[in-house]
Amino acid sequence: MLKNWNSRSITYLLLAIAGLVGTWYFNFLALQQERNFFADWSSTPAVLSATTDLFVLATAASVFIFFEGRRLKIKYWWLFILGSFITAIAFTFPLFLAIRERKILSQGNKI
Questions:
Q1: Four-point Cα dihedral 75, 80, 86, 90, nearest 10
Q2: DSSP secondary-structure letter at 27?
Q3: Spatial CA neighbour of 40 closest among 32, 48, 29
Q4: What is the pLDDT of residue 3?
């Protein structure tokens, strides 16, 4: 059951779970408070800074997923990028890293 799971891939998986639970908790609160989710992204300079930071990071992660997914022949690599729009990059990127780690281990390679 734990074949090709090492401490690094498990750490990435735990981060993915934290990213999913953390972001969706706050998304739920925003919905419950009937907030304008997208308008709030540009409400103050501090929020704009965090939004820009997240956007650049998400773009870099998507480029990495694109090239690494194709290089390692990870099936459905593009779902991680698509999924980041539906869930959160804080979930999909660590999840991709966990799958990537398992793929490398299954090929007998070490990072």
A1: 150
A2: H
A3: 48
A4: 75
Q: Which residue has the tokens 């990495």?
A: 64
Site of tokens 């998507």: 62
CB 90 within 8 A of CB 106: no
Binned at pLDDT 50, 70 and 90, residue 81 comes out as very high
Phi, psi of 88 (to 5 degrees): -170, 145
- CA-derived radius of gyration, the chain: 16
DSSP states of 38-78: HHHTTSSHHHHHHHHHHHHHHHHHHHHHHHHHHHTT-TTTH
Q: How far apart are CA 92 and CA 58, in angstroms?
A: 10
CB–CB of 12/90 below 8 Å? no
pLDDT tens-digit readout, 13-56:
999 999 999 989 988 888 888 888 777 777 788 888 888 899 99
